[in-house]
Amino acid sequence: MEDLVSAAGGVCAVSALICVMRMIAGGTRLKGQAELIAKLVLAASVISLFSEGTISFEVPDINYGSVQDFSASEQLYDDELIKQTGENISEVLRGQLEAAGIDAEKIETEVNILADGSIIINRVIISSADNEAAADIIRSSLGQETEVVNGNS
Fold it and tell me: Quick check: is 96 in a domain?
């Protein structure tokens, strides 16, 4: 603590010296040179505070979140990706059914996305006036093994 007090006194003394030199030197060339020397002494005294360890800064530990926090956000992302993918596939199927003249009240697609990024369509739930014709169109688009469920029942 004594070092800090003496360093602060030194900074004050050098600052006072700079003011006195400004008043004495006036507008002469000596004023600029004397100020430069005094400012260098001031800078050296401030730097010595840090180099001697009198003043030290500690960077606080910042908690960036735990692994659980990351896995929770990753799960939210995966859930939203599955939901959006299912909605997109349902819209494409709705367009195909409308092109065939079949009006579907509800099309819901259940999907899974594997770790390698591939999409598996588990089931399509459809509510339509002609579910059999709609199921045939959906199976022709997605594959014959696709499970198409009547949403009316």
Answer: yes
What interhelical angle do 29-51 and 2-25 show, nearest 10?
170
Return the closest-CA partner of residue 121 out of 88, 149, 95, 147: 147
- How far is it, in rounded angstroms, from Cα 148 to Cα 128? 12
The reply to whether 44 and 90 lie within a common domain is: no
Of 51, 68, 88, the one marking the end of a domain is 51
Range of the structural domain that residue 23 is part of: 2-51
Query: pTM above the 0.85 mark?
Result: no
> Residue 20's Cα: distance from chain center in Å?
54
SS3 letters across 39-106? HHHHHHHHHHHHHCCCCCCCCCCCCCCCHHHHHHHHHHHHHHHHHHHHHHHHHHHHHHHHHCCCCEEE
Residues with pLDDT less than 50, the chain = none
